[in-house]
Amino acid sequence: MSQTESPNEITDAVEESPTPSSLSRRAWLGIAGAGAGIAGAALLGSGRAAAADLDPVLVGGTHTGNTATSFENTTATAPIAGPANALKGVINSATNGSHTILGTTAGDGHAIAGVATKLDNGRGATWGRHLGAGAGVEGENTAQNIAIAGAANGVKGIITQATNGSHSVLGITAGGGHAVAGDIPATAPNTVAATWGRHMGVGAGIGGISVGGYGGEFVGGKASVRLIPSTGVAAGPPAGAGHLRGELYVDGVGDVYYNESDGANFTRLNSQGGTSLLTDPKRVYDSRSSGGKFGLAEVRKINLGQPGGASGAVVNLTVTETDAGGYVTLYNGDSPTKPNTSSINWKAVGTDIANSLPVAMSADGSINIYANSATHVIIDVIGYIN
Q1: Thinking of the domain 275-385, which architecture would CATH place it in?
Q2: 199 Cβ contact partners less than 8 Å away, ≥ 6 residues apart
């Protein structure tokens, strides 16, 4: 191009020239593009046919073939967001809603897709950086009434061969913001949680780690945290193996349990240690009128009642008409073995002695009575432990 020729003049000259019949359409586009430079874009007028497979790129034209036109850059050491780009779009005076690259699909494919074949470069197949206050990458889906973990996603990340430490979505921030944030307006339909996780195996649905702060923080207008029992959960702590220290669990009737050490070592937290004393204590067992005197090392199970789902009772234990010195032990009716403890002791024949004590009950309100020496036993309930 001479210094006196304008791009428009070059374009006009090319458009007025007939296409040589001896040149293929592809070759002609290449020659015209080489001669006209940037003005070659004017070759793509409305009268030119759509590009077919492997034809040169027609900027502003239409591609109707099955083989995608590709751009390739073989630079190996360019930095992130550097000058080595296979395709680059630039808008110098963008207004809200403008896009440097816009992908639209009416089918089942992806509007924009990125594929990285170098597996160890640590960079994203699709990557975005915003130097202002906007999002580096943003996705929007306007479908409504989609089920949890359904197909309508603003942004979706999938790893099919994940190793420990891999993330389908990773957020990193060096400022005061959030690495990953979820925000749902009050009017949104089918809303469960702003940030939600589900693990189909034995791992956690959502996990949090902080080196010097809190692993998790929760604020709610109704309550900060809600523990939801699984459908059909029975009353009482969870059973089975694999439980670890620090677990919290809520059963089917709303009782909360904390696991004190590895294994199933749960302690109920709500109403722990609360005792309701009876206005009128009640006698629940007297061997003088039921069963006769205990023999040597005999065990009997009795029921103390269980108002309000009580887990224990405060009782007054009396032994009378003893045949010799001995002791009696009261313990949980579910326990298969007697603990190495005593609830009352005496030293001689013909002793009458009493003692008040708490005792844990089984799920149906029963306890075991063990006597190592022949004696009558009387049990009066003074109150219940919730």
Answers
A1: Sandwich (2.60)
A2: 205
The backbone torsions φ and ψ at residue 385, rounded to the nearest 5 degrees and listed phi first, read -105, 125
Amino acid making up residue 198: R
Torsion, Cα 141 142 143 145, to 10 degrees, reads: 110
Are the C-beta atoms of 192 and 148 separated by less than 8 Å?
yes
Digit-coded pLDDT (tens) for 54-96: 666 666 666 666 666 677 777 776 666 667 777 778 888 767 7
Closest among 281, 272, 295 to 383, alpha carbons compared: 281
In angstroms, the Cα distances linking 63 to 49, 51, 60, 88, 93 are 9, 5, 10, 19, 28
CB 350, CB 363: distance < 8 Å:
no
What is the radius of gyration, based on Cα positions, of the chain? 40
What is the domain partition of the chain in residue ranges? 1-71, 219-270, 275-385
- Cβ distance 363 to 334 under 8 Å? yes
- The Cα–Cα gap between 66 and 174 comes to 44
Neighbours of 143 (CB within 10 A): 9
For residue 27, what pLDDT is reported?
Answer: 36
Give kind and range of the element (H or E) at residue 329: strand 326-332
Report the C-alpha gap between 270 and 257 in whole angstroms.
8
Single-letter amino acid, residue 73: N
- pLDDT tens profile 229-243: 878 888 888 888 899
* Total number of residues shown for the chain: 386
Express as a percent the part of the chain with pLDDT over 90. Answer: 33
pLDDT digits (tens, 9 = 90+) for 6-31: 444 333 433 444 444 333 343 333 33
Please identify which residue in the block is written with the tokens 């992908």. 103
Rounded Cα distance between 67 and 69, Å, is: 6
Strand order in the sheet with 256-259: 248-250, 256-259, 266-268
Return d(Cα 282, Cα 259) in angstroms, integer: 35
Q: Which two tokens stand for residue 277?
A: 């004393």
